[in-house]
Amino acid sequence: MAEIAPSILAADFANLQRDIEMLNASEADYIHVDIMDGMFVPNISFGIPVCEAIHKHARKPLDVHLMIEQPDRYLEAFSKAGAWGLTVHYEACPHLHSTVQHIRQLGVQPGVAINPHTPVEALSEILPDLSLVLVMSVNPGFGGQKFIENTYKKVATLKALKEKFGYNFKIEVDGGVNLDNAASLIQNGADILVAGSFVFGSANPTATIADLKNK
Ligand SMILES: O=C(CO)[C@@H](O)[C@H](O)COP(=O)(O)O
Ligand SMILES: [Co+2]
């Protein structure tokens, strides 16, 4: 069984409060909040005021995924906007150790995300400092993309490193997650599954979250 983090990116933005209340009443463990700047990724989603508004209604921790360049500029602002966890991209952080320490000093759980082309081994020196490793199973920037199969291998490698060195970070998988790949992801070591379009595009999102949770 994994924890589930539905991505609010796939919610109805004109009915955000309604969709947050649905998540509050569901078996979701977190609310995944995708921040896109139109620079690190081609798409723009929403920013700090929307994160604040989500936090006002959410009764689940906000798992904030920063797909932005130079994320250090905004760590404090997102922490004040209610982030429980702040995940930055390895590819966007030349001083990753310093960025991770900054997140922890803010009292927020630090996470690092890796794009599909980035090997898990690139994180070897930072793994002891992390609460979360987010493995992108699509190229970041858009919901509704097809799951990349190579992700299973990356998750298994991370799990092996956790076991070998006794690290505490959780392994989160993000992109194209559905009921066809959830069980294999969990078997390979995924602790948290992010799902956007599969949840919000289903006829009964609450039941879909429960189905993913009970895999
Ligand atoms: O970070 C991202 C995309 O860049 C994700 O969190 C998506 O929002 C997941 O959406 P689906 O692939 O589940 O539709
Ligand atoms: Co995400």
Would you give an account of this structure?
It catalyses: D-ribulose 5-phosphate = D-xylulose 5-phosphate. It is an enzyme of class 5 (isomerase). The protein is of the alpha/beta class. The protein has a single domain (about 5-215), classed as Aldolase class I (TIM Barrel), CATH 3.20.20. Helix content is about 35%, strand content about 20%. It has helices at about 15-25, 50-55, 75-80, 95-105, 150-165, 180-190, 195-200, 205-215; strands at about 5, 30-35, 60-65, 85-90, 110-115, 130-135, 170-175, 190-195. The protein has an 8-stranded parallel sheet. Helix 6 (about 180-190) links the parallel strand 7 (about 170-175) and strand 8 (about 190-195). The chain is globular and about 40 Å long. It starts with a strand and ends with a helix. The model has no long low-confidence stretch (mean pLDDT about 100). The structure holds 5-O-phosphono-D-xylulose and cobalt (II) ion.
Radius of gyration: 16 Å
Beta strand %? 15-25%
Low-confidence runs of at least 5 consecutive residues: none
Q: What is the succession of H and E elements?
A: EHEHEHEHEEHEHEHH
The CATH architecture assignment turns out to be Alpha-Beta Barrel
**CATH domain topology:** TIM Barrel
Family: Belongs to the ribulose-phosphate 3-epimerase family.
EC number: 5.1.3.1
Catalytic activity: D-ribulose 5-phosphate = D-xylulose 5-phosphate
Pathway: Carbohydrate degradation
